[in-house]
Every structure is written in C-alpha cells, then in structure tokens.
Amino acid sequence: MTKMKAVGLYRYLPISDPESLLDVEIPKPTPQGHDLLVRVLSISVNPVDTKVRRPKDRVETEPKILGWDVAGIVEETGPDTTLFKKGDPVFYAGSVTRPGANSEYHLVDEKIVGRKPKTLSYPEAAALPLTSLTAWEALFDRLGIPETGNENTNLLIIGAAGGVGSIAIQLAKRANLTVIGTASRPESTNWIKERGADYVINHYEEFVPQLKQIGLEHVDYILCLNRTDMHWDNMAKVIKPQGKICSIYETDEKLNLYPLFNKSVTFVWELMFTRAMFGTPDMMKQHEILNKISDLIDSNVLKTTVNEVLSPINAENARKAHAMLEEGKTIGKIVLEGF
C-alpha cells in the first residue's frame, strides 16, 4: 500500500499543544465513480478547520485530516468522470463530510471542482474556493441579489476584512451594489477599501448613527460574516422593510426573530458545504460557480485574497495558521504551499 504525507490529529486539543496537529502518513487513495485524485500543491486555512479541531472529549483511531481549500493537479480520474482529465490544474473546497485535503493527494467529486485560474499561482488560487463559493451563494443564491443592475441598492457586510468578506466586496461591486463594510482597526479598514468598499463603519458601535452619517436610514441587504448573535440587534434595526439578511456564522444563542416581523424581513443561512453534504440535485452549481470565478480572475475583474503564504505544508505551519485564525484578527487568507 502506497503511503502519503498528511497533517492530521488524533485528539482534539488547544492549538498551543504540539499534538493538536501532527505530521502523519496515511494510505494514498484511489478514485472511484466521479472522484478525481488531486495532487495537492497548496491549501488555505479557514475558520471551519479550527471549529472541527476545537477541543472535545474524543479520540480518533485513524488520523483525522482537515483542510477544505485546495489548488492542485489532477493525478487520476474515476471511471465515471467527464469534466477533467489527468494533468488538469484545478481548485476547489471539497466536502466537510469527507477527509480533508491536508495531504499529498486528495479525493474530491468532480462536480464541486473548478478549473484553476490561469493567471494565478497555486497559492493564490488556493485562497479562493471556499470563500468564493460562500460569498457567491450568499449574495446570489440565498439573498437572491441580481448579478447586475443594482444601482441605488446597498449591501452591509459585517466582518468584511476576512476571507469571505474580501471576495464578497468584489462580487458585490461587480453587481453594482453600494457596499458598506464593517471593521474596527486601521489595517482592516484599509484592506476593505482596497477591495472596493464604498464606506466602512465600526462593528463595535451602534450601526444606526454611523449609517446616518453617510446618509443612509436603512440597508437593503446584510451579509453577516461574524458573531450573528452579537450583531443581531444592530442588524434588525438597520435592515429596511422587506429587506434580507444572510449569515454564515452559526450561533449557540437563540435568535429572537420577532424584531424582523413588522418589517417582513427575510433571514437565511448560508453554508457552502450544504450542496456536497446532502448531494443536492444542483451540486454541479459549485463547479459552474468556480469556473465563473476563474474567468473573472483571469479577466482581472476579481483579485485573489491571499495575504500570507507559509511553506511547506506541515504540522508546524498548520498550527501557526490555526493560531493566527483563532486570534480573530486575520485579514485576507493564510495559505500553505508544498509538501
């Protein structure tokens, strides 16, 4: 049995513990059905990695492999594949219900894989899939915003300097929306403005007076990328009648939907893994979205959101990336390159 390098865990520990992520060797898999076997060249780290790794009272008998953002090259194809061939450069986010991609080779269903942008390096491409899919689905599928023709329409993005926010700003500006991002530090404010946001407000202060200062009573849409429970009251106050709110940030707190009642406001969740997790009939949509993102990158309409690259892909650098994410001050994306 051929073995391959990977980064995994047996126990769920604080990231300060050197055993929280380990260098391991696992069997190299073989593609079946619609699967591609991808040679992993770069990965990026997302909050989902830290959430899955979060300390809990459980021990794995086999290494648990994390990682849901990949850029690499197709090594082998399953017998039922039609979209890709050996040697194709690809990028994708994968499925949270399958082993992650922090390994030399990785299996993924071709229906959720896109062709890598030609104009980007593998680290630059690895920064994009999960956040691009999340932002695209949130804006155009969940909130139902038209892809064009949104003059005199605005969008508030809470936590706009992170990975999803960095791409959501660009997609929203392409759709002609006026974008208000939230930040709390000068460096994140600058990052948001560089991505194209029209205005920036502070998410630790009341939204209503800040919006009034820029001439707005209400916002048409809200995309919440941070602490849904913490921002709930602010969102309920500033959303316009018949407006729509989408959040990607799960909460253990019960949300009081009643403040949305009089305004007939729509609230919706976005989880990028839903289509793959449930094998929905429209699972192929993620292949199509990633190809659109690739085209927009190569047309210079969108820019990658990578902000830091660590090399090589190993447990030490993975722990470093997790620790940076857990500080909650990350701007853009952290990428790991090369085994």
From TrEMBL:
Pfam families on file: ADH_N, ADH_zinc_N_2
GO molecular function: oxidoreductase activity; zinc ion binding
InterPro entries named among the record's database cross-references: ADH-like_N, ADH_Zn_typ-1, ER, GroES-like_sf, NAD(P)-bd_dom_sf, Zinc-ADH_QOR/CCCR
Residue ranges annotated for the Enoyl reductase (ER) domain, each copy included: 16-336
Superkingdom field: Bacteria
Keyword annotations: Metal-binding, NADP, Oxidoreductase, Zinc
Family the entry assigns: Belongs to the zinc-containing alcohol dehydrogenase family. Quinone oxidoreductase subfamily.
Protein name: Zinc-type alcohol dehydrogenase-like protein
Organism: Halalkalibacter wakoensis JCM 9140
